[in-house]
Amino acid sequence: MPGDVPIELVLMRHANACAPAPGQTDEARELSPTGLAEAARAGAWLDAHCGRPDAILCSPTVRTRQTLRQLMATGGDWPEPAYEPRIYEAGGQTLLELLDETMRPGDGVSRVWMIGHNPGMQQLALHFDRSDDYRGVPTAAIALATAAVANARLAIAADWRVRRWAP
User: Fold this and answer.
1) How far apart are CA 139 and CA 141, in angstroms?
2) Which of 42, 75, 127, 134 has the greatest count of CB atoms below 10 A from its CB?
3) Pairing mode of beta strands 111-116, 142-150
4) What pLDDT, in 10s, does the model give residues 13-46?
5) Which DSSP category does 61 fall into?
6) Exposed/middle/buried for 71, CB within 10 Å: 0-12, 13-18, 19+?
């Protein structure tokens, strides 16, 4: 339709994390060796299947930051990530609002990546992927959602095309 803007969203749950050490906060948990490998494979998949983001929203936890570092390990030009505290423990509606705040196609921001946590990432992914074969969001899983949206409002977009990847 006239006025529709093409956008691309990468929604990713952090890779596999270690169990917390005694006295360690959840926010300080690091990726396990499995998680580091998962995140590296996710980065290779993203490099092959989508363009570089215009903006990156990432939870400030250690495991999401480490996941993002693995995604960016291919080198090159990357935007400065926004480490957004509202992503941690957020539900799908809050995450959708954060994406809507960030998406600015008129200013060249039409490709956004978000790295976060369950259950919020699963709730958000369900907003875009309502297929019968939806199986949830395991660690390091990616939902690549594309659409043309009216007035760049994600909440009212229709006809989403979603590709999924999981390790």
Assistant:
1) 5
2) 42
3) unpaired
4) 999 999 999 999 999 999 999 999 999 999 999 9
5) S
6) buried
Q: What confidence score (pLDDT) does residue 100 get?
A: 87
61: burial class by Cβ within 10 Å (0-12, 13-18, 19+)? buried
List the domains of the chain with CATH numbers. 9-16+28-165 (3.40.50.1240)
Whether residue 119 has a cis bond before it, omega within 30° of 0: yes
For residue 127, give the amino acid letter: H
Ramachandran sector of residue 89 (left: φ over 0; alpha: ψ -120 to 50; beta: rest): left
What is the Cα–Cα distance from 165 to 63, expressed in whole angstroms?
A: 19
The CB density around residue 97, as the number of other CB atoms within 10 Å, is 14
